[in-house]
Write a structure and sequence with these properties.
The chain is mainly alpha-helical. The chain is built from 3 helices and 3 strands; from the N terminus they run αβββαα. A 3-stranded antiparallel β-sheet has the order 1-2-3, with no helix packed on it. The longest helix is centred in the C-terminal third of the chain and has 18 residues, at 106-123.
Amino acid sequence: MDDILSGADDITTAKEMQRQLIGLMKEGCFHHYKWSANNEELLKDVPTENKEFLFYENDELVKTLGLSWRPKEDTFMNLQEVTVTITKRTALLFISKLYDPLGLLQPIIIKCQNDDSKNLAINN
């Protein structure tokens, strides 16, 4: 498992979730190496070498699940590389990332592309 994202309404609930998660992962012989939180109190019991985000460093981004997260502000960003040449393909790729950020429609798009290429082969 790479990343776990979770949230809670208050610190007490978050600490309880953190305690349960650590216990559950220990039962499976897993160890979490990188911890991040938007509240310093949640990272108080985590060793410094296991913290991915340190509150005393300014404006730090944490990358998780393909998104960039700014813990101090608790905001998510989707940073994209800017391509020099804009083509129909890159425009469609950008639009699909907006409407389908997890790529759930990708198998459907690939199937349609394969069907179109078969039609082209028949017509030629």
